[in-house]
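Minimal example, chain plus pyridoxal-5'-phosphate.
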Amino acid sequence: MDKHVTRRRFLVAAPAAGLATASAKVPAPAAKSALLGGQPVRTQRFPAWPVFDQKEERALLEALRSGKWFRGYGDAERVVPRFEQAWARLTGAKFCLATSSGTGALQTSLAALGVGPGEEVILPPYTFTATLNVILNMYALPVFVDSDLETAQIDARKIEAAITDRTTAMIPVHLAGNVADLDTIVAVARKRKIAVVEDTCQSHLAEWRGRKAGTYGATGCFSFQASKNLNCGEGGAILTNDEELLEKCFAQHWNGGARSEKYSDLLHGSKFLMSEFQAAMLLAQMTRLEEQTKTRGQNAQYLTSLLREIPGIVPARMYDGCTRNAYHGLIFRYRKEQFAGLPRAKFLKALSAEGIPASSGYTPLNKKQYLKNALNSRGYRRIYSKPQMARLEERNLCPVNDQLCEEAVWIMQSVLLGGRGDMEQIGQAVQKIQAHAGELVRA
Ligand SMILES: Cc1ncc(COP(=O)(O)O)c(C=O)c1O
């Protein structure tokens, strides 16, 4: 490409000039929007998810034929302990405990840290519902800290003001493969003596200053649910560098069954064990993770550079400390003012008609009806006073997050496993919609 052609002009020029093979079939922006009956920018599918072959089949059969389907107590022959060692090695954590889900990992962490009724736990309002549920399950008060519009992460600068003498833990989420501001989070947590449970459910192999996300907090919690970058259908893991906390987590995730004498008969707990089949899948899937993460990273960076050139499209940025974004998703803000006022829902419909899958992401967690119901339940009303609850309502307002929830668009991780041509088509589809935004509004 001519060096003097800007990316923005490239996006417009590529289809007309019939440049790359992928873009040769792309209709010029002047063509009719696919939602209005025109030819879509793209008709081929994006890469299928999950990715598997005989490696996974062999691993599952081996686990099956071993006749030992339960993890055992740490027997090196079993698959779960082997996975735990491998995940700890890959992430640089001292210890790993596999769990049945990311929710189980978070719940186990809070329980092992002794979080309970009467206490407050800080979390972001822009995350999957499990981050909130585990706090409610402990009858603790969820205290939301607003989002940072530019990164879609928790606004770490606002955490300290949300801390009270009842705050015992915070669950910062590293959302969509990106990393929350760990410098600020760790410094505040140290200063105010608050436990950090990193929700790393979406950020496998993401890094902060060259060290893996999930290794900065008291624990780091991963999910291996079907949509995640590392996937075994359902699964999770806890990372920690604290051996005592590991043993408490172990007991907590197994109905109090301790493997060390020290915790024998001391804790009750719940049951969140990983099975041998899940671990077998994970060991096989892990062989692809680094390569897939590289591909997502390269594609996401390229796509970001293209989208950034389109007026009204604002890709989420990373903090300086984020040295690797794992891109569980690529998030951008859609400013409808630059699209003739076309509502986001219709923009997404138009994008889908052009052959590009995308979604609107989360709705505000701090406004969920089930949260109101929980806080109004008999148990909560017995633990917390009316004035405390009224104050909480005010503290939990998150106006920046409301805007984020209205504007965000997510392109999911499997779409980022394609090639550069695929990314160009995404950019072209957005441009095409912009060119036809007026007609789309009127249609
Ligand atoms: C940010 C976040 N936290 C927690 C979870 C819960 O993980 P799981 O579905 O494995 O229980 C998820 C999974 O979607 C998640 O995305």
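Residues 1-27 have pLDDT under 50 and may be disordered. The chain has two domains: 7-46+289-361+405-442, 54-284.
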